[in-house]
């Protein structure tokens, strides 16, 4: 079973994603901040993918992504934001995918499937 | 009657009024007596030239004093017979010449009261000097008028017109014709600009008659030209505008006048070369004067003046005056040029100012829009998160209520409405996102140099050699400056690793095939540089080792560019970075 980390400061989003990806057959973990996310990545070498929100307090998703990339290129990261503008940010290009949040999770699910298959 | 000349002289010296008005004795003069019949006697003459005045010895002895028909002369003589000493000034025409005299008469010298003493002095020299002085005053007055007129205009044609009027004005420098040739900006040619003067004696007569009747000042004549009241000068202007004289290395009288910074007289005795002869023939005058127009060290042009109609010789004094006047004229022309340059700069500043004002207005507008955009994005974000939760849960519930039509209908409505709002937000976000793009036109050469400087500073290495082709120097691409730097920094850093240091790189920027090409190579790995670069980048199956390099490639492709290896002829083993040029709209 593949392990997915969900990073989002909104609890309702985390709950939704956890429930939806559990149904899809993944093992999900969720954290509410960038700091917790980095700790989790550090401590869990069996992590397979990260779904990462951008706009968060303290440390935003791009900084988290930058930190993850300095440690490893192995874990795919999907940036998942309510904002479209970060697409133009150079750092965001380090992610494997950039998807804008949507009530229709099929695109996100498809991208997760694609990245984990590779 | 006392007829001793010595006693006559003594008596005159004792007469106070006469003593004060006694003319210079160096000039031709004569003492004599007149009796009641106005008959001359006892003449003592001074000065060898006196005879030429017409009062020769035969005249001055035992003859009736000739100018008695002049009432002033007769009155002075009669006054003396009535014991009143007085004087008169009179003119006498002898042949075709006019002579000027002073006559002093004083009462009886002898006991008999039948004669008076007279002193006659030739004042022709005085008159000549007075005329010469007046001529000089008139000339200076015209120069003064011209200088005043220079100060009142910044129009080059008017300045040239004033110069020519002063040069040809009768009371001024008095030449028959004047021509002005000016140097072009590159000092390659002297171009004929303006001329004034008659083409024939008949036309000269008409012009000078016209001017003498009007007795105009220089300013008034200038006004007539401004008003277009001038049907003369046509021939000379046709002549001057046809002249284009190359400023060559070899010397000619025009160039010599500039080099020697003085006016020169060209006459028939001078040995002239072929070009000089040609110019002389075109002007049609045997003798003429050339005065240089000089601004500091540069040659503005020349004034040429001649006396084609009157054939009056050009004197040293004429030349000197023309030279002095040419200096004033040079300043006036130079001021006009400076004024023109100043006007052009003011115009450019005005245009720049207008652009700044427009840019500022646009900036204010953009900042307002930007503020609105940011606010709108915040709102969109705040809406999108709950919408994702609501719509997401609705979709999840929808899958679980397939057998409950009422709930299926309600969750379906929630899902569709959430999707509808999301679509609106997407459209809105893309508009806001586009408005935030910062693509601008940049010269590729400048961008590359700037990137190299940054890299050189970070790596503490010297700049590499960059050859920017002539055509590529000003070509521009449309790009976000920050993204260009990021992409090129990655490529150049990797390239410098292959070359063994940034300073060992060799860059060439070329414009070709509607694109601009940056060729990157090194002296040491000349033929295999690009292959070495890509070998180092790949980790197999076409994937690139560095995430940064992937990003750099994405940036290039985003702007329609590419990174690759060109044909051997084109690239000579070098790495090629290519960007499309901005094509001008037709």
Strand content of chain B: 15-25%
Largest binding interface between chains? A-B, 25 and 35 residues
What's the N-to-C terminus distance of chain A? 15 Å
The total strand number of chain B stands at 18
Which strand order does the major sheet of chain A show?
A: 2-1-3-4-5
- Percent strand of chain A equals 15-25%
The total count of helices of chain A amounts to 4
Rg on CA atoms of chain A, Å: 13 Å
Anisotropy-based shape of chain A: globular
The rounded distance between the terminal residues' Cα atoms of chain B is 116 Å
Side by side, the strands of the main sheet of chain B go 8-7-6-11-10-9
What do the pLDDT scores of chain A average to? 90
Q: Structural class of the helices, strands and pairings of chain A?
A: alpha/beta
Structural class call of chain B reads alpha+beta
Helix count, DSSP H or I runs of 4 or more residues of chain B: 18
User: How would a textbook summarize the main sheet of chain A?
Assistant: 5 strands, parallel
Spell out the blueprint of helices and strands.
The complex is a heterodimer of chains A (118) and B (586).
Chain A: E1 3-7, H1 11-23, E2 27-31, H2 34-43, E3 49-52, H3 61-71, E4 77-81, E5 97-100, H4 106-117
Helix pairs in contact in A: 2-3
Chain B: H1 5-14, H2 16-21, E1 29-35, E2 40-46, H3 57-60, H4 71-81, E3 86-94, E4 97-108, E5 115-122, H5 124-151, H6 156-168, E6 177-183, E7 189-196, H7 201-214, H8 218-226, H9 234-241, E8 244-246, H10 253-260, E9 264-266, H11 274-283, E10 288-295, E11 298-306, H12 316-400, H13 405-435, E12 440-443, H14 444-459, E13 465-468, E14 476-479, H15 481-499, E15 505-512, E16 515-522, H16 529-537, H17 547-558, E17 562-565, H18 568-571, E18 575-580
Helix pairs in contact in B: 5-6, 5-12, 6-8, 6-12, 12-13, 14-15, 15-16, 15-17
